[in-house]
Structure prediction request, 358 residues.
Amino acid sequence: MSSILDLEALIARLPEATAAAARRIFAITASTATLEAPAEMVDWIVRAFGTLDAVRTQRIVRVTNLVTLEGALFNELRSRRPKDMSGVDDVRQAIAGSANDPFCHVDTGTPSDTFGHVRGGHGTAVSNVAKYDGWHGVLVFDEHDPLAPMSAEVLADHFRTARRWAEKALAAQPEARYYFLLWNALWRAGGSLVHGHMQMTLTAGMHYPKVEALRRQSLRYRSEHGSDYFDDLWSVHEALGLGTTVGGARILAYLAPVKEQEIIVLGDPGGDETTLAAGIAHALVTLRRDGVTAHNLALYLPPLSADGNDWSRFPPLARLVSRGEAGDRTSDIGAMELYAASVVATDPFRIGNALRTP
Prediction:
């Protein structure tokens, strides 16, 4: 199997047009870190990391997306660091113990917006008590267990229900046209309640900064290179074995992830988020199979009504990132991720291979 350590060589072997796209989008550098360990540490190092040599000489690959200025430093050795996993066995107990919470009684346990609750086939959109923005809703799943398998059909129903909520909010405030959907699964990913739920917001003035930045970056890329950024991003990942398609959605193990095992799901311009459902469902199955029980999901979508800006080539897309096991007490995000670049232990080629497994 290919490795992130081989990325430069792999790109050099791509067809000329695809290799050129890879070099337009990604900058790759590699470095070797070395250390000498005192004799007193050797036994601990071997127990924790397998061999002394694995620690003595470490190969690190840095990948920067030159279009978005997202970047990651890859070192597989960091996946072997000692962690406090004492909370893992409590996850299932916590899920079972949280049954009969307010979300289990949506009519009496949740507030509503001025237009009331919005019911779907598998969930109900309600108002959020403590809001991010002027419009902030919660899509409460009928299924209490956040780790229950979710089919593409159920996911698409959730997306339709959430969009109906957003359209009702837009009707109440037409300038609040910028719609964002997120899913923080369990507390390690920022979820304050165990019961399965997504969240939706609407904002006015302009889209949220990271969505608007991506729109502008993709337009600049097209102007400078005469090529579509999202199509080039896909073609590079597919050619490297990091992409697959499911139900028309393009799924890729991203080379400049925000954190571990980030997966991007791309639709086609003009489509809506339901076209991503099969791809997201497949990505979730892939992560669950790898032991992931906490994740973050975000949808990047054009505004609900025209704002005078060019969104014509902006596809619906999802970004999904692992937050590991919900009971892992070791924080996975620190100052490097907040202020410098992501530090990543998972090789994207391992995730790409897993995505291609049915």
User: Anything to note?
Assistant: The chain has one domain: 98-358. The CA atoms of residues 102 and 108 lie 8 Å apart.
